[in-house]
Amino acid sequence: MKSKAHIFILNAFLFQLGWFGCILGGNHIAVICLVIILSIHFYLIGNWQQERELLATVLLVGASIDSFWIQLGVIIKPDTQTALVPLWLACLWVIFATTLNHSLAWFKSHKLIAIPTGGIAGSASYAVGIQLTELSLGPNGLWFIFVSWLVLFPLLLLFADFYQQKATSDTTIDSQQV
User: Fold this and answer.
1) Using one digit for the tens of pLDDT, what is the confidence trace for 91-128?
2) Which of the residues 62, 123, 133, 170 could staple to 146 if both were Cys, CB 3.0 to 4.6 A apart?
3) Counting beta carbons within 10 angstroms of the beta carbon of residue 23, is it exposed (0 to 12), middle (13 to 18) or buried (19 or more)?
């Protein structure tokens, strides 16, 4: 089960499953999806020791950006009591982070292609996802999301590359000390 093709397909499938679960299921289902997907991911695909910092970084960056968009009115929440990102969207950021070293890893060595892909795929994901939730887009909201994802996707790939290299060097240092 550990062939590159199987890992790629399973990782992409788990992300799509998580995307639908988080968007259609709301907060409670999103947390359940997150736990199940992370369990499968770390059992069959990834390594918690090597990916935990990446997952935390992507969660913080993504939730901050979405919260910022909510505060600016790029994304409109019907619940105006808090300008923070909904829990289901925060869960989706963590699930997305699991793809950066696996099904989306190819883009790490093709960053010029990652730029337009990020803008197009990122804004398309928001455009479709927002139609299925309680959220809506403000004036020019999709444009702001598109431009942000032109930068965000390559940046997240840089984080993934950095943490992967750091984990590799930490493993090398640990094995030399033994």
Assistant:
1) 999 999 999 999 999 999 999 999 999 999 999 999 99
2) 123
3) buried
